[in-house]
Amino acid sequence: xxxxxxxxxxxxxxxxxFRHTAGRIASHFFHALVEKRIxxxxxxxxxxxxxxxxxxxxxxxxxxxxxxEVKQQGTLEAFTVCYARFTGLPDPPYCLALVKLDGAxxxxxxxxxxxELEDVERMKETVRIGMRVEAVWRDEREGGIQDIKYFRPxx
Amino acid sequence: MSAKVAIVGIGQTALRTSADDRIYHExxxxxxxxxxxxxxxxxxxxxxxxCSGWDAVDGRTISDMHTAMSSGGYLKDSSHVGxxxxxxxxxxxxxxxxxxxxxxxxxxxxxxxxxxxxxxxxVFDPLFVRPLGQSHLVSLALQANxxxxxxxxxxxxxxxxxxxxxxxxxxxxxxxxxxxxxxEDVLSSDPVCYPxxxxxxxxxxxxxxxxxxxxxxxxxxxSEKPVWVTGIAWAIDSYDLGSKDLTSLSSLSSAAQxxxxxxxxxxxxxxLDLAELHDITPFHELLAYEALGLAPExxxxxxxxxxxxxxxxxxxxxxxxxxxxxxxxxxxGLLRAAEAALQLRGEAGQGQVPGxxxxxxxxxxxxxxxxxxxxxxxxxxxx
Lengths: 155, 383
Description:
The complex is a heterodimer of chains A (155) and B (383). By secondary structure, chain A is of the alpha+beta class. Chain A has a single domain, classed as CATH 2.40.50.840. Helices cover 12% and strands 30% of the residues of chain A. Chain A has helices spanning 23-34, 120-126, and strands at 38-42, 49-50, 66-70, 73-82, 94-101, 108-112, 132-137, 148-153. In chain A, the strands form two sheets. In chain A, strands 6-5-4-7-8 form a five-stranded antiparallel sheet, with no helix packed on it. Chain A has a three-stranded antiparallel sheet with strand order 2-1-3, with helices on one face. The longest helix of chain A is centred in the first third of the chain and has 12 residues, at 23-34. By secondary structure, chain B is an alpha/beta fold. Chain B has two domains: 5-115 and 205-227, Thiolase/Chalcone synthase (Peroxisomal Thiolase, Chain A, domain 1, 3-Layer(aba) Sandwich), CATH 3.40.47; 121-204 and 229-382, Thiolase/Chalcone synthase (Peroxisomal Thiolase, Chain A, domain 1, 3-Layer(aba) Sandwich), CATH 3.40.47. Chain B is built from 14 helices and eleven strands. In chain B, the strands form two sheets. In chain B, strands 3-2-4-7-1-8-11-10-9 form a nine-stranded mixed sheet. In chain B, strands 5-6 form a two-stranded antiparallel sheet. In chain B, helix 4 crosses helix 14 (332-344) and helix 7 crosses helix 12 (282-291). The chains are: A alpha+beta (155), B alpha/beta (383). At the A-B interface, strand 4, strand 5, strand 6 and helix 2 of A face helix 6 and strand 5 of B.
């Protein structure tokens, strides 16, 4: 074995098919999105409205079967704008946001659109935590989280 | 009081950007050999090995089991954690404290055969979150922004944390990035995920870390420089980013309270002589000060500005340079424990804090960044 020998690199990639079941709770939520309605489950014990809906409350540890419809407007709780390009992630810039919809007690992960993202200084002036946002729907809805195209700032 | 357990061997390989001359389990092997030599033991003395690894990062499933042989585990008791190596330390502690074993080997490695941001996307829920482009760094940036917004943490204050740690790393030959930076360097570095800039973000480092843990009886027999684990605890918080208060680290607070109780600490700022924290971003070092009770909520940046956490300050934090200087993903938390133990032995070199007696090491095990965060706190004292 000599020092000059080249180290061999074997390329690899994972491309594994799955069928992820949404289960009865998330399926009900996704069916509602097709009809442009956003629904959540309410905990019978702590009374929190959990968005996205889930089958149990992790704090009270009780099953959830009460449904409530929440508003399509809400408040931007947190956001980040991704300016770097990472393999497999969306093209930059994109804004990932946590939106607390009116009527919900937890925030939904989603994208912020129709905002000025290209220039950081301009973005800082126009996108702010606490700003009001609303859901923008896709025309073709298939029963998935991206039936909501993104949230946009409310004028 | 539970049984006493000591760290009696420390092994660290060099940290670097890539290592095409070896397969990743060789990092564990080299670190394990170094830790055994440091302890004055050989493979035959080891009763149990606890390995760690993240499947997607390593590019094979159950990668934490693959490293059992490179950790000295042939035909021995072994367990594995798909977590940062700090949790392997926790497992090893329990196995010895339970009285089942005398000597445990703990190993962890980081490598860089894929981008951590790319593979961390698959940690996230495929129904609600993954398609949106969520990742380790993206989720940490969301948290950094929420924290900075709530308490008015400025870009300059965040830069101050980086400048402190990079300055410490500049004199640590064991870390990866060994050059200091100025506040201007940090403030003018490229935006990555707002508010995070390039110099806020840790490198993806390649290398291995290993520790040998021992029962009290065995330690008294073989070690002249034991580092005793006097408190250790861990906690996990919600998997869902939208279900938690992003402006605090609740899992770290919970772990710290338990570890302090075990070690008999009521005033950590006074009781501790140094801390090695998992500063995955500068904002998260500040969040950690608050969760550890070193500063009031929103008050962490003042500690940095006052120089309290600088190497010569009241409580030096990350005298090794921290994660921003050296970040083997999956081993960065265990590396905090290794660096804190070196300090207590007085063997940290140019970065040595004068005469420390009690140290805190904090490791975060969360490829999902701010979501489903597990924090582990280890209190250790010199022999």
